[in-house]
Design brief:
Blueprint: H1 25-34, E1 42-46, E2 49-53, E3 58-64, E4 67-72, E5 75-79, H2 83-89, E6 95-99, E7 102-105, E8 109-114, E9 120-124, E10 129-132, H3 134-143
Antiparallel strand pairs: 1-2, 1-5, 3-4, 3-7, 4-5, 6-7, 8-9, 9-10
């Protein structure tokens, strides 16, 4: 990978240009960093108390009634953000969509169990479980590099 830096006081703004034959994990990490997608914390409500939540502590997000709930090892917290907003600000190498109503922290996953209808049941380290809808099964397999023997 070649890197070049051009510093000139005549520039009016910073411009980043990436030229690559394909979008791989290292390029995605650079993009996530540049875009500032590494969110330092979220604010979740539990009753009248507001809690500061670090994304790494969150096992998964799911929709409940008309809102989004963040589930951690210490409890569940209601967020103001929508799932699609969270998907835009959370690092793509750590969080992945499991279904229309769930985004999971890849580092909080414990194991998978295949279901007869083509879905996956995901178990978290906390003991909680969620289902991966068929639409997202291949995406999660790719994220976890489960398709290593594709060429065989």
């Amino acid at each position: 990978m070649k890197v070049s830096l051009n510093i000139d006081s005549d520039f009016k703004e910073t411009k980043v240009k990436i030229e690559t034959p394909e979008l791989d994990d290292s390029i995605q990490e650079i993009l996530d960093f540049i875009k500032g997608r590494e969110t330092e914390f979220l604010v979740g409500k539990d009753g009248e108390m507001q809690h500061i939540l670090k994304p790494d502590e969150i096992h998964y997000f799911h929709t409940e009634n008309d809102g989004v709930v963040a589930v951690t090892s210490t409890g569940s917290f209601k967020l103001k953000e929508k799932l699609y907003e969270l998907e835009g600000i959370l690092p793509t190498n750590k969080f992945i969509r499991l279904s229309k109503s769930v985004i999971a922290n890849l580092h909080a996953l414990s194991r998978f169990e295949a279901s007869f209808n083509g879905t996956l049941c995901v178990y978290f380290k906390s003991g909680e479980k969620e289902y991966v809808s068929r639409t997202y099964v291949n995406t999660i397999k790719e994220a976890l590099k489960m398709n290593r023997r594709k060429g065989e």
